[in-house]
Amino acid sequence: MDALQARLQQKSQEFQKLQADLSAAVEARQKLDAQLSENELVKKEFDKLTSENTVYKLIGPVLVKQEQAEAKSNVNTRLDFIRSEIKRLEGQLKDINTRAEKKRTELIEVQTAIQQQQVPAA
């Protein structure tokens, strides 16, 4: 019985760790979604610019003039990076969910074994 209790505790700790990993990944995904929305908004604004418009970049407390093509390129590069990070995180979330489901099943199996041992003793 003590071996089963130890297994139950171990599986429970492993499951809690997976839940924490899942929570962290979801939080990271939400931050990336916010960054994606923000950069898509900037891209839409850039699409409205004409060649006469001036673009400035904030560097510390100073606005520095920047070439439109460079600014647009920077935003497109950022969007590509954010999308690839979202894709990577989606895979990570899927993996964590799969492992958590497996761990949940293992937990239930150990709990069931403990309950079955307790029934004859009662």
TrEMBL record:
Q: Which terms does the record give in the GO molecular function aspect? A: protein-folding chaperone binding; unfolded protein binding
According to its UniProt entry, one GO biological process term is: chaperone-mediated protein complex assembly
* InterPro entries, sorted: PFD_beta-like, Prefoldin
Q: Which GO terms describe its cellular component?
A: cytoplasm; prefoldin complex
Q: Which residue windows are coiled coil?
A: 1-106
List the SUPFAM superfamilies: Prefoldin
The domain of life is Eukaryota
Entry-linked Pfam families: Prefoldin_2 (PF01920)
Q: Which UniProt keywords apply?
A: Chaperone, Coiled coil
Give the record's family classification.
Belongs to the prefoldin subunit beta family.
Name of the featured protein: Prefoldin beta-like protein
